[in-house]
Structure formats: structure tokens, C-alpha cells
């Protein structure tokens, strides 16, 4: 027993007293629990009786008798438990001399318990001596009672100056106060706590490190609280690796969410600060945001850059040398210029040795010095061998400098951003080209019409959905009529816009032939079908099959509107009374399928009725995916009380249908119908008799006098004379002469023949063949339109 403690805790030790003859005279402590005998059962018995069978009892008795005063006995023996089993005990006995003679006092414990104590103590000592993590034991007053070498190295304070003192005494400040509060909570509740905290390391010149501290209460077997123990593990590199992975993950999900160059630059800054840097600036070559193209290779000196985005740990970014929107040129000595010129990243862990840079960039250097910047990274934005700009990172709040791992992460993040910026630049370039083409090809001027007052809105696609192929037109037709058309080409981008422009041009050309709406759609369908069979030089289809179209022709004389539809949304009519109706038109197939018929629908419109034509982008709402039926209901409500000014009505409809103003391409075309009454139209049925030519001239002159248009009499007489003569010579009865006072004077002669007149160059000796030539010279426009009963030759003499 030489190596064991000099005493044992009362909870585990049994005590006994014996006289010089070895008879037990006292029994206490944990003796009843250890051997199963109470005091009454053993007092008066020789102690050797309690030894287990086989024990050397004579030797034990001789040892007791041979001891002199003041000598003690230590040893291990096996006692007999009351239930018969053997119990190994460690015993220490002292001879005690009193007035009554010599006695023995013995204290004994179970040998297994003592061995466990020894093992536990060896483990604890080994743990404190060899564990690489910091270990500390605090008493109930939260004073250090024991620390290991690892914690001494972390604290940077010698053990002798640590023991007996509290954390708040060693490291005054709010962080120590928070740690003591956590320890006190563990001491009071007994619930272990694991938390992370940051603290500077004196040996590393104040660099902040992060630690994970696990604290738990110490309680002895008697449930007495002895204090608190803590294990401290440095997790700086783990957390930094985690932060780097988070930065890379965020970059993959949060950069490039839109096809906007500036927004992509902002997303790069949001990912980098504060996890990677305290401040970042992203500068792009001037023109990148506009979609301009740049040649591959490095960027030479003197390049002008546009500051696209900045972000700082400070709300107002006072350390920023330039704000977003500023134009910047970097001096060749700066790391930014070096990164642009070489395409390689620059890492400056410290600013020592950067005097040349600072000397040539005093404005930025002054801002950096004020902020306390101590470490810089500069990474070029490069995508597809093209340098787009540069991103520079700064640290001052985090004391540790940028290292190679940080530069690797920054390179990955910037590379991701560069590809997204280049995608956004390319999209912007194509979108700008598409918008330019769209404005050029689909520009619609509102003509002065007698048939209707029109207003329209063409809302271009917002956001980054891409320019679509919506289109429309307002076409003046002969006989004071007007053609209204809206259409939609499937797809997006420049090809859709070009196809929309091609269809609009084709419709305008076909409309000048005065084709009926169904015949015009048949011709247009054939154009799309034929074009779809070929490809352009770039390998793209030359037409988009599946487009929709609605064509309407309104005649202010008959008050009738004729519709033909190719898979398009039906028109909405709002009568002067306020009643609205959605026309149920027979919808033909989409354009391009070929060989399918289209039907016409005639509707008589009351003067002052509003005809609304539109594309589905107006109905689907801001998301572009709304329900068409719900959109039609909103459109009906928006048009329920139209303004006298159709332009204001258009604005009201757009505010109602697309309040955000950011939607798919949308077209709204409104037309308020007018009527040309008998006071503005004169009609005569004439026989096919050459003698009637003079009467036709007289009728014309008299009507112009009634309309107070005598100044047009000479031209009108000549035109009417030639038209009537031509009909008498080549056509069949019946013949009709009609004069229309519209925005111009219109002269029409109708007959039952379908023979088409042709203008030709007459020879000097020819007696005929000059009539249509003269009409073409005298009239502003002329032409022929065919009807079910024959044809009409018309001429517009002059604008009124």
C-alpha cells in the first residue's frame, strides 16, 4: 500500500478498533457496507475471524502482536463477507496507546475501488499532460484551479499567473464576461454547454482565432459541486474551410440569378462580404453593361472601367474610393492594372513593399490607410478568353491576412461571376439588337382616318424573358376603310422579331391588294409555310410555324366590320351604351400549317363602338403565366367605362392589367368607329353607254359644289371620266359611280367584270391606253379591289 493515498474518503472507508489481543472493540464508517456485518455482530470477535478461508490467520495475529508503539501496518488482505464471498481490502492500522492499554485503530477500503481511483487519477494526469486541446478546471468561484500546457499556450499567460484568478481578471472585456456567464450557468444548472467564440492570440500578434468550448459541472460521489471543467478546441481552420465552402456554394446559387450585368456584379459582392473580405469592389470595362463586344486577350493601360458594385462591412462603405457608376482608370503600377494586363490574380498578404503602387494611387491609398487595410487580393474577371473587368478584395476588420486558400476561393467565385457577366453581356447585346430591330420593323404610325380613331400600346418584354414576336398594324384601305391586325410569333429573340417584321410587311403588301380578311390569311399562311421549309445562312428557320393573327376590316360607309382569325384571341367590342361583348369567332389554324381554310365573320358596329384587339401578353399578367379567362375578365372591367380619349383608356388598361409594368410583350389596339353618312357619300347607278360619260362628269361637279370642293372639280372630272370610260369599254353592267368625302376625295367606279385593268406606256401613234396613266398622274393613289359581284376601280384625288 505504499503508493496509495494516506487517507480514504469516509464514504468508502470502514473503520475498526482492536485490543492488543486482536479482539474487535469498535466498528464503524463504511465497514457494514463493505463486509455486511453491523457493529453488534462483530464487536468482541477476534479480527482474524473475519478473514476469508485460506487466509494466513496466524501470520496476521503475529504481525499484530509484534508491532511496537508508533509503528503502522499497511497491506492487502482478503476478508470474508457475511454472505460468504471474499472481499479484497486495503488496510492501514496504527497502534494507539491509551490509559487503558495498547489498541489498534484500522481503516480499510475495497481494493478494487482504490485501483479505480488510481486509474482515474492516472488518466486525468495523462489527459492534462498530453491532450492537444486546452483543458481547465474552475472552482465554484470560477477561479482557475488547474490548466494544461495547451491552454497555457492558447492564453499566452504562464500557469503560475493563471491559477487562482478568473477569466475576467486575465482578459478584461465583454467576451470574458460572456464566457464567465456561460460557466456560471453550467455551475448552477448542471447542463453542459458547447459554444464557439472568438478571441485574439497574443503569440500571433492579435490575429483572431475561433474556439469551441465545452463546459460541464464537476460533482463528487456525494453530489457536492466541486466546480466546472472546460475543454477548448481551436476551430479556426475548420470554420474558415466551412466558410470557404459556403462562399463557393453561395456563388453557385446566388450569382447569375438574372441576365443583368450590374445585378450580377452586385451578387458577387454579396457573396464575398463578410465571409471572405471586409470590402470588395467590382469594376467592369466601360461598355460591358451595354453589351459591347471585346476582343480576347489582356487589357492594356489606360482602359476605362465602370464601377459596377461595391460592398462593405460598414453600411455606407466610407472606405470606398469610388462609388458605383464612376469611371476609373488604373495606373500601370497598381495591382488592378497588372491583373488586367496579365489576366493573373494578385495576392498581397501585407502592404509592405507596395510603396510604388501607393505613390501612383494616392486617392485610393488614402482611403485604405484611413480604413486600416492590411491585405489585398485582386482577381480579373475573365470568361471565354475575354477580360471583362477586375474584382479587388480588402481586409482590415479581420486581422489575419489573405492567404493562398483565400485567393483560390476568390478565383473560383470571380470565375463564376465572370461567366454570368459575360452571359448577361451577350444577352444584353442580343436584346438591344432585337429591340432596335423591333422598333425599326414594327414602328407603327397612327394615320389620319375617317373610319376610326385609334390608339395603341406596345409594351416590350420586361425583366430578362427575351424580346417576343408580338406585332400589329393599322392599314388605311381603299373606300375609306381601315384594316386592323394583331399577331404573335412563337419564340423569343431576334429571330422572332425578324419573323414578326416579315409577317407585318407581308400583311401590309397583301392588304394593298384589297383582299378579304379570309383570303389575306390564306395568302399569309402560304407565305409562312413556304418560308418554313428553308433555313437562313446561320442555320436558323426562316419562319416560325404556329403564329397567331387576327385581321379586321371596318367600312365606315356600311358600318360593317369583317373578321378573320388564325388561332388568335377574339376581339372585344364595347358599344356606346356601355355593353361589352366578346365576339365568338371561328378560329382558324395557326399560321404555317398550310392548306387549311379561314372563315370570315361580319359584324355591324354602332358608330362610336370601341373595338379592342390584343395579344395574350396583356392577359397573362406580370408573371407571364396568368389564366387567360381571368385576364379577359380584368380586361372587360378595365374597358367598362372607356375615356373619351382612347390614349387615356390604353393607359388605364395597362395600369389595370400590368400594374408592375414588367411582363411579356403585350399589344393593345383600340379603335373607336366612325360612320360616313349620306351627307358624305354620293352613289349613282349608270348604264354602260358612252353618252353617260358627260353626265358622270356633271354629277361629279354638282356634288363637289354641294360639298364646297369646287377646287377639286377639274381633277375629279378627269378621273371620273377616265374611270367611267374604261368601264364602258372593258366591263359589264351594272356600273356604279360613288364619291366619298373622307380624309381625301375618293372616286370609285364598280362593275360586274373581274377583268383587271393594267396601266401601260402608250406609243405616240396609239389612240388609246392613256386613261390609267393619266389617273396615276392626277390621283394620289389608285387601285382595284375585287368583290363577289365584280370589281371596283378607285382613286384618291387629294387630301382634304
Features:
elongated; alpha+beta; 800 residues; disordered N terminus
Would you mind describing this structure in some detail?
This protein is an alpha+beta fold and 800 residues long. It has 22 helices and 32 strands. The strands form six sheets. Strands 13-12-11-16-15-14 form a six-stranded antiparallel sheet, with helices on both faces. Strands 18, 19, 20, 21, 24 and 25 form a six-stranded mixed sheet that branches. The protein has a five-stranded antiparallel sheet with strand order 2-1-5-4-3. Helix 9 (236-254) runs antiparallel to helix 10 (261-272), helix 14 (404-441) packs parallel to helix 15 and helix 18 runs antiparallel to helix 19 (646-657).
Which range does the strand content fall in? Answer: 25-35%
Query: Total strand count, please?
Result: 32
| Main sheet summary | 6 strands, antiparallel
Give, in spatial order, the strands making up the sheet with the most strands.
Answer: 13-12-11-16-15-14
Alpha-carbon Rg, integer: 51 Å
Unreliable stretches, pLDDT < 50, 5 or more residues?
A: 1-10, 202-206, 762-769
* Cα shape: elongated
Secondary structure class reads alpha+beta
End-to-end CA span: 132 Å
Tally the helices. 22
Give helix % range.
25-40%
Roughly what is the average pLDDT, rounded to an integer? 83
Amino acid at each position: 500500500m505504499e503508493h496509495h493515498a494516506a487517507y480514504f474518503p469516509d464514504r468508502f472507508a470502514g473503520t475498526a478498533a482492536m485490543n492488543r489481543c486482536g479482539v474487535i472493540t469498535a466498528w464503524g464508517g463504511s465497514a457494514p457496507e463493505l463486509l455486511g456485518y453491523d457493529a453488534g455482530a462483530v464487536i468482541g470477535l477476534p479480527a482474524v475471524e473475519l478473514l476469508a478461508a485460506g487466509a494466513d490467520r496466524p501470520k496476521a495475529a503475529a504481525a499484530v502482536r509484534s508491532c511496537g508503539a508508533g509503528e503502522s501496518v499497511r497491506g492487502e488482505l482478503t476478508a470474508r463477507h457475511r454472505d460468504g464471498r471474499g472481499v479484497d481490502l486495503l488496510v492501514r492500522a496504527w497502534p494507539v496507546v491509551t490509559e487503558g492499554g495498547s489498541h489498534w485503530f484500522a481503516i480499510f477500503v475495497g481494493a478494487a475501488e482504490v485501483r479505480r481511483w488510481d486509474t482515474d487519477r492516472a488518466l486525468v494526469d495523462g489527459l492534462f499532460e498530453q491532450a492537444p486541446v486546452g483543458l481547465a478546471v474552475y472552482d465554484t468561484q470560477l477561479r482557475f484551479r488547474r490548466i494544461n500546457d495547451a491552454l497555457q499556450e492558447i492564453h499566452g499567460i504562464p500557469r503560475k499567473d493563471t491559477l487562482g484568478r478568473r477569466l475576467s481578471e486575465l482578459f478584461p472585456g465583454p467576451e470574458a464576461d460572456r464566457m464567465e456567464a456561460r460557466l456560471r450557468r453550467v455551475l448552477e444548472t448542471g447542463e453542459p454547454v458547447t459554444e464557439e467564440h472568438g478571441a485574439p492570440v497574443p503569440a500571433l500578434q492579435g490575429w483572431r482565432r475561433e474556439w469551441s468550448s465545452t463546459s460541464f459541472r464537476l460533482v463528487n460521489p456525494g453530489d457536492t459541486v466541486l466546480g466546472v471543467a472546460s475543454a477548448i478546441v481551436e476551430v479556426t481552420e475548420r470554420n474558415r474551410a466551412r466558410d470557404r465552402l459556403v462562399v463557393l456554394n453561395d456563388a453557385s446559387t446566388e450569382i447569375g440569378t438574372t441576365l443583368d450585368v450590374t445585378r450580377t456584379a452586385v451578387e458577387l459582392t454579396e457573396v464575398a462580404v463578410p465571409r471572405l473580405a471586409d470590402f470588395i469592389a467590382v469594376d467592369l470595362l466601360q461598355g460591358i453593361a451595354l453589351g459591347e463586344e471585346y476582343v480576347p486577350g489582356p487589357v492594356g493601360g489606360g482602359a476605362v472601367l465602370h464601377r459596377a458594385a461595391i460592398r462593405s462591412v460598414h453600411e455606407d462603405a466610407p472606405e470606398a474610393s469610388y462609388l458605383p457608376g464612376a469611371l476609373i482608370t488604373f495606373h500601370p503600377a497598381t495591382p488592378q492594372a497588372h491583373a488586367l494586363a496579365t489576366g493573373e490574380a494578385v495576392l498581397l498578404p501585407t502592404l509592405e513593399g507596395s510603396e510604388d503602387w501607393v505613390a501612383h494611387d494616392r486617392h485610393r491609398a488614402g482611403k485604405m490607410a484611413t480604413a486600416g487595410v492590411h491585405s489585398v487580393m485582386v482577381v480579373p474577371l475573365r470568361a471565354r478568353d475575354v477580360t471583362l473587368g477586375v474584382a479587388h478584395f480588402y481586409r482590415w476588420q479581420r486581422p489575419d491576412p489573405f492567404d493562398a486558400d483565400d485567393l483560390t476561393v476568390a478565383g473560383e467565385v470571380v470565375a463564376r461571376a465572370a461567366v454570368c457577366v459575360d452571359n448577361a453581356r451577350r444577352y444584353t447585346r442580343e436584346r438591344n439588337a432585337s429591340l432596335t430591330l423591333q422598333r425599326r420593323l414594327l414602328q407603327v404610325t397612327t394615320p389620319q382616318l375617317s373610319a376610326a380613331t385609334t390608339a395603341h400600346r406596345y409594351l416590350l418584354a420586361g425583366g430578362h424573358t427575351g424580346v417576343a414576336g408580338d406585332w400589329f398594324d393599322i392599314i388605311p384601305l381603299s373606300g375609306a376603310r381601315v384594316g386592323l391586325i394583331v399577331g404573335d410569333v412563337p419564340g423569343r429573340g431576334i429571330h422572332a422579331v425578324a419573323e414578326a417584321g416579315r409577317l407585318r410587311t407581308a400583311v401590309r403588301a397583301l392588304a394593298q391588294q384589297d383582299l378579304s380578311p379570309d383570303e389575306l390569311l390564306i395568302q399569309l399562311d402560304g407565305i409562312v409555310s413556304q418560308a418554313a421549309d428553308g433555313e437562313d445562312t446561320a442555320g436558323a428557320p426562316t419562319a416560325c410555324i404556329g403564329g397567331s393573327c387576327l385581321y379586321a376590316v371596318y367600312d365606315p360607309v356600311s358600318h360593317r366590320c369583317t373578321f378573320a382569325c388564325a388561332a388568335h384571341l377574339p376581339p372585344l367590342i364595347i358599344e356606346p351604351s356601355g355593353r361589352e361583348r366578346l365576339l365568338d369567332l371561328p378560329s382558324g389554324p395557326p399560321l404555317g400549317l398550310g392548306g387549311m381554310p379561314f372563315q370570315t365573320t361580319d359584324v355591324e358596329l354602332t358608330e362610336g363602338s370601341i373595338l379592342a384587339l390584343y395579344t395574350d401578353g396583356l392577359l397573362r399578367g406580370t408573371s407571364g403565366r396568368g389564366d387567360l379567362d381571368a385576364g379577359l375578365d380584368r380586361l372587360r372591367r378595365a374597358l367598362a367605362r372607356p375615356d373619351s380619349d382612347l390614349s387615356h383608356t390604353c393607359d388605364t388598361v395597362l395600369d389595370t392589367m400590368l400594374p408592375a409594368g414588367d411582363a411579356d410583350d403585350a399589344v393593345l389596339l383600340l379603335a373607336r368607329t366612325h360612320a360616313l353618312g349620306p351627307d358624305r357619300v354620293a352613289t349613282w347607278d349608270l348604264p354602260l353607254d358612252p353618252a353617260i360619260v358627260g353626265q358622270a362628269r356633271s354629277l361629279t361637279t354638282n356634288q363637289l359644289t354641294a360639298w364646297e370642293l369646287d377646287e377639286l372639280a377639274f381633277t375629279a372630272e378627269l378621273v371620273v371620266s377616265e374611270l367611267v370610260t374604261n368601264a364602258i369599254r372593258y366591263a359589264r353592267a351594272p356600273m356604279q359611280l360613288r364619291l366619298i368625302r373622307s380624309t381625301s376625295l375618293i372616286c370609285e367606279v364598280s362593275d360586274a367584270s373581274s377583268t383587271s385593268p393594267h396601266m401601260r406606256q402608250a406609243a405616240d401613234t396609239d389612240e388609246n391606253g392613256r386613261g390609267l396613266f393619266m389617273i396615276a398622274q392626277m390621283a394620289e393613289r389608285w387601285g382595284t379591289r375585287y368583290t363577289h359581284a365584280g370589281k371596283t376601280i378607285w382613286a384618291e384625288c387629294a387630301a382634304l
